Amino acid sequence: MARRIVFTSKAPKPPLTYSQAVKAAGLLFVSGTAPQNPETGTITGTTIQEQTRQCLENIQAILEEARSSLDKVVSATVVLAEEDDFTGMNEEWLKWFPSDPPARQGAKLPVKVPGLKISIAVIAEA
Hints:
The protein has about 130 residues and is of the alpha+beta class. It has helices at about 50-65, 85-95, and strands at about 5, 20-25, 25-35, 75-80, 105-110, 120-125.
């Protein structure tokens, strides 16, 4: 299976240094996705719940463009700016993955971006 770049205008445009997602080997690798409005590029939401929701909406759009879905997510990496936001992120996460959630790991954002609380990357079945 050849490697294929996935792009949709329904999710924020990535910088030139990486793609929204890459489809290869029967999997879809979605890059770290911020809580940005796809049309304006601005960060959406001030709470961790709002920002988590926007990240997952963006990821859902990328998955749909690649003919995949949130149900096919097998692994996720959640990167938070502040450890204190973990509980609030999980509160929103459970609305999107109420049963049989994907494997998951967490990390802390290595840089401070004004207003940015979270970034999420996923791997899904293609």
